[in-house]
Amino acid sequence: MLEVKDLVVYYGKALALEKVSLLVKENEFVALVGPNGAGKTTLLNTISGLLTPAAGEILWNNSKINGIKPSEIVRLGISQCPEGRKLAPEMTVRENLEMGAFVRKDKKKIAEDLEKTFQLFPRLKERHLQLAGTLSGGERQMVAIARSLMSRPRLLMLDEPSLGLAPIIKEKIFEVIREINSTGTTVLLVEQDTQMAFQFADRAYVLETGNIVMHDKPEHLLGQSEFRKAYLGL
Asked: pTM higher than 0.90 for the full model?
């Protein structure tokens, strides 16, 4: 489905990603973990077309998508839920969700998908006329995920969806992400809470200073003392 091959990305003269390779198969739940500054967000932004790689390839269903505009990448079926939610605070919940369907013209199906997101996040239906800037952190994260779903993605990329959330809200968010995956949407998740991410992921990649240093099933990574010491403090 998605294949990243030897991707090299710079920020100015600073090397952010060095020959990174990654594979996400259809219907998988793949986690990308690693310390702050490792390049995880850079990788997602490059896949989304927000950054241009210096070298390497990004393949979507075996077709190269390097250099394609972000809006076209969304049309292909790749949607990113960014770190920090990045909502329009002066707009209502409903308006923020409708923005997620900006590449679509099928008004009837957009309305149907809006109702589906309300079923997924019932609290948003209660808040649909409320300004997004007045919501709690957990509610804003719900809006951000629901907005990403409004483009009908085949691949949903989530960047730190649990950041700053209370444990009970974090668990709710992850349960919803698992439900999204179980209904046929492929998930690529960047997450600081490694233990939480590994409860749901089929496979995981570990990114350090712009390099993939480990790749395996979560249970195999958790069985490695080097991994447990570096990322779980055990």
From this structure: yes
